[in-house]
C-alpha cells in the first residue's frame, strides 16, 4: 500500500521523540498501520541534536508544509496558539489530516477547529494532548462508549506532579525542581502554564468534552495551581493520612457539570495518591464499568511520541474511510446542551484549612463557632504546640460543605483579630462514587 507521508512541524522534545520512534519502529508501525508511515518533511526553527535528519527535507518555515502536495498529515508540534492555529487551519483547508499534541490549541480553539475539519472531511487527532503517553482519549472515546460517565479525576500535569513529589520526598525548593522539569523537557514553553494549573485546565476541558459530550469550555474551568502549596501543608496532610496532588476534576451532578483544577488532599490509600514524579493517572467512573484507572508517563519525548504515533496509525487506517464512519472528534455524534458548568461557589467538597492564630485563650472556640454558624462540621482539628513567634498553627479538616459557605467562613476567619494573615484552603476529595 502507498505510504502515508507526514510533515513533522517542530523538532523539539516531542517532535524529536516522534521522529526517532517513527524511524526506530518503522516496520512494526507499518505492520500495524497496513502501510509505511514516512517522514517526508521536517519544518522547524531549531535543529534537535538527538535526531539525524540528514536524509529528510528540513525547512525552517512551517507553512511550507501546506504547499507541499506530497504531505498527507501535518503533525503540529510547535506549541502555542498563533502559528499553531494558522498551521492547523491551513492544513485543514488544504485537505491535509492533522495530528497535534497541543492541548492549549485544542482547548481554546477546538470547537472551531473540529467544525472546520468536519466540513473538510479531514481527521484531527490529539491523543498526546492529554496525559502524554496514556491513551486516555482513546479509552474514553472508544472503550467506554457504553457508559454514562459520572466523573473523571486525574493528575494531568507531569511537571506539577514532579514538583509536588520532590517537595514531599525531599522537601525540595520549588524553583529548583521546576528548573529540573524544564531541563527534562516536561514543562511548557511558559512554565507558569504548568504551575498555575492552566495546562491542567486545558486538558480537563478536553476530558470533560469527551466524557460528557459537551462543547469544549476551557473558559469555564476553575483553575488554581500549586504555587501556594507549602512543604508544611504536605507534612500536615501526611500526618492526617492524606497526600496533596494537583487534580483536574469533572463530575456530572443534578445541577450541572463540575469543572475544576486545584491542589487536593487525597486519602493516602487511594491509588492516585501514590502516583509520583512525572507520572500521570486518570480515574474515569462510568455507570456500567464503575471506576477505572489509567496510568503512565504524562510528559517527555518518547512517551508523548507514543501517543502522537498512535494517532498517525489511526489516520493511516481511517483516511480512506467515509468521514461519517470515523470516531467523532469529541466522542459524541451529538452534543448535549443541558449540562451547564456549575459555578465554583456551588460545588460541594470537604476542606483542609491551615491558619495561624494568636496564642490567646478561646481562639479555637471562636474558630469552631464560625464554622458551626455556617453549618459546617469539623472532622479533625489540630492546634500545634509549637509557637511560630507568638502564633499557633491550627489545622482543620471539615466535612463536605458548599464552596460558598467556605468562602464566607474564610472571610470571617481572616477578619478575626486572633488570626494572622490568610487562611490556607485545600479541597479534600475521597475519590469514591457518591
Ligand atoms: N514536552 C512534553 O512532554 C509534552 C508536550 N506537549 C505539547 O507538545 C507541543 C510541543 O512541545 P515540546 O516539544 O515540549 O516543545 P519544544 O519547545 O521542545 O519544541 C518546539 C519546537 O517547535 C519549533 N517551533 C516553534 N515555533 C515554530 C515556528 N513558528 N516555526 C517553526 N518551528 C517552530 C521549535 O524550534 C522547536 O523545535 C506543545 O504543544 C506542548 O504543549 C504535549 C505533551 C507532552
Ligand atoms: N507540560 C506538560 C507536558 C505534557 O502535557 C506536563 O508537564 O504535563
Ligand atoms: Na494521551
TrEMBL record:
Q: In which pathway does it act?
A: Amino-acid biosynthesis; L-methionine biosynthesis via de novo pathway; L-homoserine from L-aspartate: step 3/3; Amino-acid biosynthesis; L-threonine biosynthesis; L-threonine from L-aspartate: step 3/5
Q: Its Enzyme Commission number?
A: 1.1.1.3
Binding-site residues, NADPH: 103
Question: Source organism's superkingdom?
Answer: Bacteria
- Is Phosphoprotein included in the keywords of this UniProt record? no
Q: What is this protein called?
A: Homoserine dehydrogenase
Record keywords: Amino-acid biosynthesis, Methionine biosynthesis, NADP, Oxidoreductase, Threonine biosynthesis
Its UniProt entry gives the catalysed reaction(s) as: L-homoserine + NAD(+) = L-aspartate 4-semialdehyde + NADH + H(+)
Amino acid at each position: 500500500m502507498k505510504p502515508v507521508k507526514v510533515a513533522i512541524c517542530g523538532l523539539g522534545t516531542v517532535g524529536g521523540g516522534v521522529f526517532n520512534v517513527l524511524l526506530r519502529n518503522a516496520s512494526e508501525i507499518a505492520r500495524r498501520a497496513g502501510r509505511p508511515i514516512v517522514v517526508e518533511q521536517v519544518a522547524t526553527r531549531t535543529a534537535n541534536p538527538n535526531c539525524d535528519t540528514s536524509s529528510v527535507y528540513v525547512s525552517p518555515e512551517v507553512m511550507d508544509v501546506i504547499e507541499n502536495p506530497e504531505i498527507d498529515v501535518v503533525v503540529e508540534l510547535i506549541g502555542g496558539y498563533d502559528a499553531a492555529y494558522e498551521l492547523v487551519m491551513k492544513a485543514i483547508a488544504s485537505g491535509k489530516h492533522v495530528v497535534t499534541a497541543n492541548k492549549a490549541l485544542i482547548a481554546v480553539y477546538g470547537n472551531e477547529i473540529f467544525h472546520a475539519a468536519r466540513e473538510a472531511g479531514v481527521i484531527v487527532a490529539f491523543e498526546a494532548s492529554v496525559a502524554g503517553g496514556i491513551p486516555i482519549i482513546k479509552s474514553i472515546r472508544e472503550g467506554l462508549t457504553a457508559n454514562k460517565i459520572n466523573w473523571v479525576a486525574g493528575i494531568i500535569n507531569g511537571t506539577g506532579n514532579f514538583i509536588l513529589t520532590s517537595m514531599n520526598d525531599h522537601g525540595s525548593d520549588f524553583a529548583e525542581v521546576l528548573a529540573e522539569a524544564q531541563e527534562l523537557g516536561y514543562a511548557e514553553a511558559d512554565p507558569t502554564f504548568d504551575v498555575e494549573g492552566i495546562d491542567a485546565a486545558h486538558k480537563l476541558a478536553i476530558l470533560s468534552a469527551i466524557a460528557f459530550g459537551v462543547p469544549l469550555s476551557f473558559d469555564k474551568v476553575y483553575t488554581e495551581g500549586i504555587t501556594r502549596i507549602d512543604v508544611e501543608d504536605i507534612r500536615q496532610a501526611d500526618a492526617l493520612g492524606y497526600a496533596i496532588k494537583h487534580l483536574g476534576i469533572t463530575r456530572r451532578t443534578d445541577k450541572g457539570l463540575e469543572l475544576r483544577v486545584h491542589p487536593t488532599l487525597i486519602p493516602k490509600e487511594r491509588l492516585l495518591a501514590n502516583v509520583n514524579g512525572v507520572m500521570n493517572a486518570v480515574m474515569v467512573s462510568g455507570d456500567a464499568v464503575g471506576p477505572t484507572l489509567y496510568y503512565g508517563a504524562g510528559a517527555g519525548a518518547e512517551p508523548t511520541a507514543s501517543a502522537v504515533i498512535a494517532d498517525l496509525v489511526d489516520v493511516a487506517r481511517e483516511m480512506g474511510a467515509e468521514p461519517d464512519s470515523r470516531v467523532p472528534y469529541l466522542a459524541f455524534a451529538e452534543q448535549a446542551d443541558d449540562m451547564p458548568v456549575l459555578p465554583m461557589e456551588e460545588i460541594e467538597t470537604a476542606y483542609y484549612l491551615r491558619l495561624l492564630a494568636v496564642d490567646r485563650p478561646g481562639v479555637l472556640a471562636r474558630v469552631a463557632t464560625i464554622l458551626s454558624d455556617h453549618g459546617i462540621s469539623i472532622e479533625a482539628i489540630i492546634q500545634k504546640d509549637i509557637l511560630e513567634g507568638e502564633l499557633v498553627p491550627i489545622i482543620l479538616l471539615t466535612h463536605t460543605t458548599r464552596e460558598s459557605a467556605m468562602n464566607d467562613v474564610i472571610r470571617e476567619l481572616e477578619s478575626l483579630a486572633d488570626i494572622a494573615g490568610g487562611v490556607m484552603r485545600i479541597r479534600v476529595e475521597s475519590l469514591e462514587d457518591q
